[in-house]
Amino acid sequence: MEIILDSQKISQIINTLVDQIAKSVSDSSQNPPAIIGIRSRGEILGQRLAKLLVQRLGCEVPCGVLDITLYRDDLNKAGGAFAEVRSTEIGFDINDKLLILVDDVLYTGRSTRAAMDALIDLGRPKAIRLAVLVERDGREFPIQADFAGHKIKLPPDKNVEVNFIESDGIDRVIVR
Amino acid sequence: MKTADKTNFQWTHKHLLGLKDLSAQEIEFILDTAKGFEQISTRSIKKAPPLRGKVVVNLFFEDSTRTRTSFSLAANRLSADVVEFTMKTSSVSKGETLLDTARNLEAMGIDIVVIRHNAGGAPKLLSRSISACVVNAGDGYNEHPTQALLDCYTIRKQLGTLKGKKIAIVGDIAHSRVARSNIWAMTKLGAEVTLVGPPTLMPSAVDKLPVKISYSLDDIIGELDAINMLRIQFERMANNPFPSVREYSHYFGLTVDRMKKARPDMLVMHPGPINRGLEMESEVADGPNSVILDQVTNGIAVRMAVLYLVSQANQIVGQVKS
Fold first, then answer.
1. pTM for the whole structure
2. Is A122 touching B (CB cutoff 8 A)?
3. Among B36, B179, B249, B318, who pairs with A87 as Cys (CB 3.0-4.6 Å)?
4. CATH superfamily of B24-141+297-314
5. Bridge-partner residues for B114, per DSSP?
6. Closest Cβ–Cβ partner in A77, A122, A167 for B43
7. pLDDT tens sequence for chain A (176 residues)
8. Does domain B145-292 sit in CATH 3.40.50.720?
9. First vs last Cα of chain A: how many Å apart?
10. CA trace torsion B87, B89, B92, B93 (10° rounding)
């Protein structure tokens, strides 16, 4: 196990992500962005981004949680892992909204694909942008992050694991 | 792909035959899963894709309106293809046996059978004979697991928990698979269950059940958190178990007068269809305490959860065993 990001670096990256997101939406004050965090680490990252964005933009930034289980492409794969369904909690209308989709790690792109399909079933957002804490190589789908924190190249047998204080008691990113 | 939070629990049942043999944790897990499905029915696109390409057969050997419709909707909302198979339109009326019917359906490539049958144990028999998942939608006087699950879901949603709650099941306990499944589920989840009804409508081995018995609704109504009024099932009664409908109603009906003795927030439940004026007065069925229509709504989410879980268990069965 190797720690690639500690809590200080994580908080720097989050601040940079907020900067980038705020700049990209500064001209659309008419229609402020909304954050959608993918369960479960994306939810926590999303809440942190939303809190900082509220201060930066000086407007409400709605924040929701998306459970993508039902949209995963490996659900019906024989011998796959059991997929536990939890709830999607988006308390606002996503129609015509600029959505910042938030996940902890972008790897194959399959979670992002599932998340976009799940969102489209909830309405027709104006646009969806992708923000991630860690972007690693190994994409299997034509999907890229609009706002990427830490970029890293890893062999396929390695796993990136993001820990947050809220869920794991510590802020760190490790590679196993 | 990102993996979800690792919990120690994994659902492993590819059939839902009853609640008697499930643990409290397993029942809670179904209810938790149902919560994730609830919002699908309230959004504009009432569909999600997890059972795409799967075939669900509604195999109903007994009449049913709401259970069958609820299962159909649940399967549809998970994007499964649904085949309706009812006794009147099927080869069963030509003398085909249950297993022959099921094997023929299976030869057509089905994934899940939802079965209702007038013989207790029919779903279990079926589950041993075919490779598809089997979900019990009511078998004889044995169990009606999804009804009890939606009852528990409704109570949990309204009261937060079943633990320590006082719940009465009133009426025709002897002929009621709903009562039986409810007794298992509610007591496992920590509720204190009292069966109420005339002695003639109590099951024979009632003392072996983990419940209290009362022959007077008036005696206990004041302390209840929820009351589940069962339907008097005239079609299942060979000899008259009570002198008259009026007398039954007088002692065991949920009337406006009797409601005055209940706690103001007592939940009023009924599995439907209601014999209005017999087990319950219309004013009560449609009154502020009634969650009868919530039960119907919640039934879809609960059945979606059950169909999803058995299908997932079937998918991973090889891995679980290894």
1. 0.92
2. yes
3. B36
4. Aspartate/ornithine carbamoyltransferase (3.40.50.1370)
5. B58, B135
6. A122
7. 999 999 999 999 999 999 999 999 866 567 789 999 999 999 999 999 999 999 999 889 999 999 999 999 988 777 777 889 999 999 999 999 999 999 999 999 999 999 999 999 999 999 999 999 999 999 999 999 999 999 999 999 999 999 999 999 999 999 99
8. no
9. 5
10. 100
Helix (H) or strand (E) holding A174: strand A172-175
Q: What is the interface pTM, i.e. ipTM, of the complex?
A: 0.88
Q: Min CA distance, A163 vs chain B (Å)?
A: 11
For strands A172-175 and A160-163, give the pairing.
antiparallel
Domain-wise residue ranges, chain B: 24-141+297-314, 145-292
Whether residue B168 contacts residue B183, with contact meaning beta carbons closer than 8 Å, is answered with no
CA distance B179 to B198: 15
Cα–Cα distance, B81 to B134 (Å, whole number): 16
Tokens of B139: 């078998």
Cβ–Cβ under 8 Å, residues B59 and B101: yes
Encode burial over B203-217: b for 16+ CB neighbours within 10 A, e otherwise. Answer: beeeeebebeebeeb
Give the one of A77, A84, A85 whose C-beta lies nearest to B37's C-beta.
A85
Give the sheet arrangement for strand B166-170, strand by strand.
B212-214, B192-196, B166-170, B226-229, B267-269
Model confidence at B4, pLDDT cuts 50, 70, 90, reads very low
Residue positions of B annotated with a catalytic role: 66-67, 94, 116, 144
Interface of A with B in 61-100 (CB under 8 A): 67, 69-72, 74-88
